[in-house]
């Protein structure tokens, strides 16, 4: 009798448990719904991540059928906005237009950062990479890489602007110092926009910058390009020689940008976003716009993107240690 009563009491529990997977599936909210999707740019307006986020927002909005907005959350060389996304809900409504700096440079540059640059994120899709450019304000009188190095070696005090401590702009500048055997003074800003404004105004003579915010000013004759930082000349700007060509062999720096989300994002949502990004980047119009800005589109699956980032973090860890760069 006791066994029968026990069985009678337990059977309903098994029946309810059997229904749970179907119930959970039925209750899983569709994505996206009427809620807006936010892309967080971890730098000030006008910089590379801001420009790329706004370029991507429109095609994503069309492909996903949902409003996509861009929010700027700058600070600490991109770490503030990056950390904001790391701690957001992994529901597909808060995304990061990631720059490689906070992901592959900050972990080795800072003694401590508030997020794990690999474990705290879902690597949704890469967007583009770009050889950076060495820029000079025409009023500085600096006419070439050779001239820049010669002036610094003679003891002339030369400052260089960056988008902030720990950004690729900062580390590439320190790489240049180390390779050339000079010591220009790093001046960090809160994003590429403010750094570019001061370069244009002549407050700083030199900047290491992504071509995305730089090239419109170059074409207008407001700043001079001295070199590009990749191992080979950029396909977008084949007339610009590399730093390696101009006397520093082996110099190679080509940062990247991508779309990321908090860790734990539903793989189905990640794939849907990855597909949408890849489709957007494959369009002739988007390729042309990126090419004009000096950026080259990238295409990877989400696992490939994470593996790429892990490998790149190892590379930049060595660069940071070799350059002797420190947070300012």
Q: Your description of this structure?
A:
This protein has 328 residues and is of the alpha/beta class. It folds into two domains: 37-129 and 256-323, D-Maltodextrin-Binding Protein, domain 2 (3-Layer(aba) Sandwich), CATH 3.40.190; 133-228, Periplasmic binding protein-like II (D-Maltodextrin-Binding Protein, domain 2), CATH 3.40.190. Helices cover 45% and strands 17% of the residues. The protein contains eleven helices and eleven strands. The longest helix is centred in the first third of the chain and has 26 residues, at 2-27. It is globular, with a radius of gyration of 24 Å. The termini are far apart.
In short:
The chain is of the alpha/beta class and 328 residues long. The protein is 45% helix and 17% strand.
DSSP strand count = 11
Number of helices: 11
Point out poorly predicted stretches: 10-27
Order of helices and strands: HEHEHEHEEHEHEHEHEEHHEH
**Rg over C-alpha atoms, rounded to the nearest angstrom:** 24 Å
What overall form do the CA principal axes indicate?
A: globular
List the main descriptive attributes of the protein structure presented here:
328 residues, alpha/beta, D-Maltodextrin-Binding Protein, domain 2, 2 domains, six-stranded mixed sheet, five-stranded mixed sheet, 45% helix, 17% strand, globular
């Amino acid at each position: 009798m006791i066994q029968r009563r026990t069985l009678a009491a337990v059977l309903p529990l098994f029946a309810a448990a059997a229904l749970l997977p179907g119930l959970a599936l039925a209750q899983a909210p569709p994505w996206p719904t009427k809620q807006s999707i936010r892309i967080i740019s971890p730098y000030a307006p006008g910089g590379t991540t801001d420009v790329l986020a706004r370029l991507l927002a429109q095609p994503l909005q069309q492909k996903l059928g949902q409003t996509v907005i861009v929010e700027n959350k700058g600070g600490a060389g991109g770490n503030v906005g990056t950390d904001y996304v790391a701690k957001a809900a992994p529901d597909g409504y808060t995304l990061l237009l990631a720059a490689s700096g906070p992901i592959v440079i900050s972990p080795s540059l800072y003694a401590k950062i508030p997020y794990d640059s690999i474990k705290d994120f879902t690597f949704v899709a890469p967007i583009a990479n770009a050889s950076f450019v060495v820029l000079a304000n025409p009023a500085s009188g600096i006419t070439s890489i050779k001239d820049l190095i010669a002036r610094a070696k003679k003891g002339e005090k030369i400052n260089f602007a960056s988008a902030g401590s720990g950004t690729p702009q900062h580390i590439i500048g320190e790489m240049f110092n180390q390779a050339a055997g000079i010591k220009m003074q790093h001046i960090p800003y809160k994003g590429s926009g403010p750094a570019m404004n001061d370069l244009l105004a002549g407050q700083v003579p030199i900047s290491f910058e992504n071509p995305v915010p730089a090239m419109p000013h170059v074409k207008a004759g407001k700043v001079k390009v001295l070199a590009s930082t990749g191992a080979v000349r950029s396909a977008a700007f084949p007339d610009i020689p590399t730093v390696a060509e101009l006397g520093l062999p082996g110099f190679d720096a080509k940062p990247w940008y991508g779309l990321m989300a908090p860790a734990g994002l539903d793989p189905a949502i990640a794939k849907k976003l990855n597909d949408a990004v890849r489709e957007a980047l494959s369009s002739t119009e988007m390729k042309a716009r990126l090419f004009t800005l000096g950026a080259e589109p990238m295409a990877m699956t989400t696992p490939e993107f994470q593996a790429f980032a892990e490998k790149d973090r190892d590379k930049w860890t060595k660069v940071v240690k070799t350059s002797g760069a420190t947070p300012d």
